[in-house]
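Justification of resources, computational component.

The compute hours requested in this renewal are based largely on the per-chain cost of generating structure records like the one below. Each record pairs the submitted sequence with a full structure-token output. That output is archived, and it is also reused by downstream analysis tasks.
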Amino acid sequence: MQSENSPPDLLIHDVIIAGAGPVGLFLAGELALAKCSVLVLDKAENPHSPLKQFPFGIRGLSAPTIEALYRRGLLEKLEVHKRLRNPHKTSTPEGPRRQVGHFAGIPFLEGNIDSSQWRHRLPSSTETSLISEMEELESVLARRAEALGVEIRRGLAITDFQQTANGVTVQSGDHSFEANWLVGCDGSRSVVRKAGGFEFAGTEPEFTGYSAQVDIADPEKLGPGRNLTPTGMYFQSQPGYLLMLEFDGGAAHRPEPPTLEHVQATLRRVSSTGVTITALRAATTWTDRARQATTYRNGRVLLAGDAAHIHSPLGGQGLNLGIGDAMNLGWKLAATIQGKAPQGLLDSYQTERHPLGVRVLDWSRAQVAIMKPDPPSRALNAIVRELMNTRDGATYIAARVWGVSTHYDLGGGHPLVGHSVPNFEFEDGARMGELMHDGQGMLLDFDGNASLKTLASEYGGRIKHVSSRAKEQLGLSALLIRPDGITAWASDKDPDCSELEKAAARWFV
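The structure output for this chain reads:
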């Protein structure tokens, strides 16, 4: 750290994070939990926006995101999902015909999902999907970060930076900040990505998307629900709240909000009606451009969230992918900063997260491919719809949409390795996620094995030994769990301590 007489802007932080969205704030909290000093810079002076509030700000949280929030004691602080338990409904509000998600607007139904195929999910597991509001989520994450000592400075956009072998100097107008590391969580137009020379490879858009709050003089001219048309699609979630897609190759997308006249002309084209908009309350445009940084690290600069990958928001995958980036990166970067990282630990952020980004971008492209208003796409849409009405089809789609099938290829012989640790319920009533609020690694020992306790003690508190019986142990005797909740090693029988030692040395020192 600098001396007490140093100018405030010249204090050297462990990490500067560009962007105070959910990804940047969650990452800041993870780093601060591990005792790193963190400065978050955000270009917006005011974090509040109508586009972050209900209904525009509503986002679906997938299983890995829900688990991440739960494991840090944050899930219980979110209230919106408690008020909006059933965001998608068919004419039958409950029961097996209830719509619980969609792929490219094609619904999948609760009664078609065979959750028994998800072998590692227990009755005590968190839910597979929930609804959240962006503004509430950001507020909860900001309060957590500040309580842990993170400094958040708003109205300061990063304009440039320079890095050396030892650190990074960040400019924001007349201000200059020093840090050992810089992480760009500054969205799809990331200055950090551009200034850092990251290659951003991918595909160009097929459509311009619109989210708008409007007053309509003649709403009866619009059909209810989701409407596919010869030029695109429109959907009215509730009176005056519109979602539209026009397959124009993304030509109408602009950084600035569209005008009333533009939104009305687009709605008339897409809906093939003479509908009249009398007032435009809020509006934004977006596209299905799908791009990904070929590497997530350049020296002491890293990318996460939309700065690392962009795609269509269809299906709500972007927020979840970004939170996963932050959960994966936080403990690894903290260990690197503190000299507690095995060789290659930080490189595993790229190795693990980049392939998941590839899958999500392809998932987004696949949805766009069957939404196009042309005969081949309509035919493909019909076939996918039939498949999604089968038990195996709905189960597969749900596992992808909800992130239940998400895992890392970590090698190892046990099928649980690389997967999220199950939320075991212990005999004393405690649950696995409640033991993970401190962000430490864990050696979970169901059989009270003294040799496991000894091994954990050799890591100086970086692996805590937890010995307890669970109500349902899935035939397991012991597990090594990373700080992000990923199973690094597991045993069904008497533990092979040599294999456990190899796994522990891979992730901890």
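Confidence is low (pLDDT under 50) at residues 1-8, 86-93. Residues 347-369 form the longest helix (23 residues).
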